[in-house]
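Journal club prep, notes for RB
We'll compare a predicted complex against what the paper describes. Inputs for the adenosine monophosphate case:
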Amino acid sequence: MPPPQRLPCRLHHKAKRLSQHHHPLHHDIQGEKTVQTAYTLDVLRKQIDTLAADGSTIGLVPTMGALHDGHLTLVRRAREMCDHVAVSIFVNPTQFGPGEDLDAYPRQLEADAAMLEAEGTAVLWAPNVAAMYPDGFVTNISVTGVSEGLCGADRPGHFDGVATVVCKLFNQVRPTHAFFGEKDFQQLAVIRAMARDLDLTHPHARSIIGVPTVREADGLAMSSRNRYLSDKDRGAAVTLPRAMKAAITRIEAGDDVAATLMAFQDELIGAGFTSVDYATLADSASLAPLAALEGRTARLIVAARIGGTRLIDNMPVS
Ligand code: AMP
């Protein structure tokens, strides 16, 4: 239920933040729920039209749910930059390959909604598969170039699934800004390319905000998939960010890139990782592999498996 009288958005948010600050039980006391959940496109459109009617900005945070502090950091950034925040939760089947973890992927809509409520999210867009892909759905968006190496090579069709669903989300929500994590660095590059090429003017490429990776205290990048890890594997997983940092220090000091990456992979396997899908020094913009740094802005991008779980991470190299 929307509050009976809305202050102008910025004032309303400011007032809400202040009152939350002074009284953490604000929502309970008011009996007011700020997050409105939409399960159908018609309902979503009405909610968004109401929020946007006065020219308010809307920030979209697309997710697959099982929210953690990484997702919530995107939501907070969106709240800082926009009048209203819409979060989508949709476990998109088309971006999972055969044998991947689609069925096992954690789903916890109620708990997620409570977290989003606490963050002042205005709209939670939670379509089911039939709402997103009605019978007869035949369209596919395929971004070439940046999508081709790295995860694109290991997971055929993955970025087509991502691009298609994100394009739909943009058209459904029509946000003024959209927020994505650098944790999925290649995904961010694919979405920027798509937004630019398809003239997705709301948001256009500059309105796509990349948010730095949020990490656990020991450095492991937060991920919904970390919950698959056994205690032993969780302990070993910290080798990934640690060894990445050490490899970056060596590359920045001028050590041979190929030899450094080979030693890096050996270190992961020695720590208990079962395989390394790739460990690549890539140009930050094109994502093309680099044999040497030579003054470029680069990224160390890694995908590695431990106990059946595929972890990805990336860090800047300069
Ligand atoms: P997912 O639910 O895994 O599809 O992620 C939804 C969004 O949250 C994507 O833009 C991710 O890049 C972002 N994200 C996931 N984990 C993190 C993290 N640890 N730090 C920052 N952003 C993240």
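Talking point for the session: Residues 215 and 240 are 12 Å apart (CA to CA).
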